[in-house]
Amino acid sequence: MGFEYLTNVPLAQARKEYLERLVSGGFGSKTETIPVFESCGRVTAKAVYAHICAPHYAASAMDGVAVSAKETFGATETTPVTLKPDQFLVLDTGDPIPEDKDAVIMVEDIVKNGDGSITIHAAAAPWQHIRQIGEDVCAGEMILPSHMTVSPAAIGAMIAGGVLEIEVIRKPVVGIIPTGDEIIPPCTDPKPGDILEFNGSIFSAMVRSWGAEAVVYPIVPDKFDQIKEMVAKAADECDMVILNAGSSAGREDFSARVIRELGEVLYHGIAIKPGKPAILGCRGEKVILGVPGYPVSGIIVIEQLLKPLIDHWLKAPAATDTYVNATLTRPVVSGLKYQEFVRVRMGCVGGRLMASPLSRGSGVVSSFMKADGILEVPQGLEGYEAGEEVSVRLLSPLEKLHNTLVVIIGSHDPLLDELADMLHLEDSALYISSSHVGSMGGIMAIRRGEAHMAGCHLLDTADGSYNKAFIRKYFPKGGVKLVSCVGRQQGLMVAKGNPHQIRKFADIAKDGVRYVNRQKGSGTRILADYLCMRENVDTASVYGYDREELTHTSVAAQIASGSADVGMGIYSAAELYDLDFIPICIEEYDLIVPDHAWDTPMVQALLHILKSDAFRGKILSLGGYTVDNPGQIIPL
């Protein structure tokens, strides 16, 4: 099949044809012989047969005495039988049975007499309490069939059957080659432009979890000859090679050319998103998979294209993925050209599973860490609407989702992360899944029945109060409770030393000042809009007023990195990034809880933590908070 630059082959077709091409070139399992006691979890290369019987002698199954059964006949409660010392032999469990004995009487069923004899009150049946030769397995019998995973019990059965070595399928070795001039080994103080190499750690952990071995090679700069040399070396030493980065069409993207010169490129470009630039190549029977540099793209590509090859090598049955129906909390728009994989956080609210899409950026590796499931949008479909029922492939156990306090879809605050940690420490079965879309987004989620709880700090510009007017407006018939949480210091975050001499809110419009805002609908954005109106600040004159971030910490990160000069946020976020802070006001950050969720164990556990001294101490240690009556219901 000829190579076509940046093809757009459907995933299923690419996966099938790639395996067929590799198998035709000799790709497949190799075997090795290892000690049985090291074989747990390994896959048998062929059937395993017992060398000896187990047990290999007639053995006592009890502590007691060995007797000849016929000498006990007639013994009853009313007509006991007495045996002389030469008519029995005292045995422990596992002792061999003498040739002239054919039964064992338990020690509990005998009466010892002063002259050394014993009295019994029940006759022994022939071969009672005796383990016969071959009771477990007979020599020559099959202990394990071919291509069976060795369990701990199987190890015991093999050793009992005299098998001390076993031929197993050798673990495939996957070589991982990171490339890029900007890539550096992990450290704590990278310079601007440096990118920490962590894909190798992610990919090696993934392939090891699938039963393969991993070798991470040194970082190779964007030099064609050096990349080619390293790929050739890895192909000689490994069964499969992941060439990470350089799979796109940029001026320093050499992967396709390297693979083509060393072997063959079957496809360059798969109809998936993220992961389109993947390169499916080989060198004879050796796999060479070109993987995009963005971590999420790479994870998707090796999960969808490398794992099936490892499974084929290890003769592992295809994994049965679990799919569930869930209600989508936000719309998902997808291109028609690709099969898209969207990470979602999940939880169960009112008997319904809810799925909240996470960041879809190919470089946002934390979204995979947080994901409970994958929404697979088929090629040719434009996406899904909010509120639509969709099928989600689970990454987390269903039990966890039913024990998840879902979903604090509201205003962001670092205290939510602290609450999640404290809740899980209190009860390891409970979790919090939070998705931050602003206070108004939280209110709407509660109205749609998509959340157990939402954070809210909405200013009523008419009287300066917080939250209550909005609850009365959006829940005129009640059905929710407003719970006091914390007061928090809102203000302007600026770089250390305040180089632009920001003194008051109106200074965000000064010449040369770059502002970074929160998203529309967030309480912080509503406050900023209100202050602009009060201070007669024309938002069009504020450079960056339309630049939006979703959390206080992300606003602080932009200022700390130097890409912005000032932004509205909370004191704890400024403190976290060592920024200067100009106080503006103390706002009320409260929690909205629908009545249907109020009595659930998860909500009650969280309210218990809110009222605790531990929570009070933790929040006050963060700085910028006041804690008056957390966990108390606020009268409406």
From TrEMBL:
Keyword terms of this UniProt record: Magnesium, Metal-binding, Molybdenum, Molybdenum cofactor biosynthesis, Transferase
PROSITE patterns xref list: MOCF_BIOSYNTHESIS_2
Cross-referenced CDD domains: MoeA
Keyword hit for Magnesium: yes
Pathway: Cofactor biosynthesis; molybdopterin biosynthesis
Gene3D superfamilies: MoaB/Mog-like domain, MoeA, C-terminal, domain IV, Molybdopterin biosynthesis moea protein, domain 2, Molybdopterin biosynthesis moea protein, domain 3, Periplasmic binding protein-like II
Keyword rRNA-binding: no
Domain of life: Bacteria
Signal peptide span: none
Pfam (any one): MoeA_C
Cofactor(s), by name: Mg(2+)
Reaction(s) the record says it catalyses: adenylyl-molybdopterin + molybdate = Mo-molybdopterin + AMP + H(+)
SUPFAM superfamilies recorded: MoeA C-terminal domain-like, MoeA N-terminal region -like, Molybdenum cofactor biosynthesis proteins, Periplasmic binding protein-like II
Enzyme category, top tier: transferase
Limits of the MoaB/Mog domain: 175-312
E.C. number: 2.10.1.1
Family: Belongs to the MoeA family.
NCBIfam families linked to this entry: molyb_syn, PRK14498.1
Physiological role: Catalyzes the insertion of molybdate into adenylated molybdopterin with the concomitant release of AMP.
Protein name: Molybdopterin molybdenumtransferase
Organism for this UniProt entry: Hominiventricola aquisgranensis
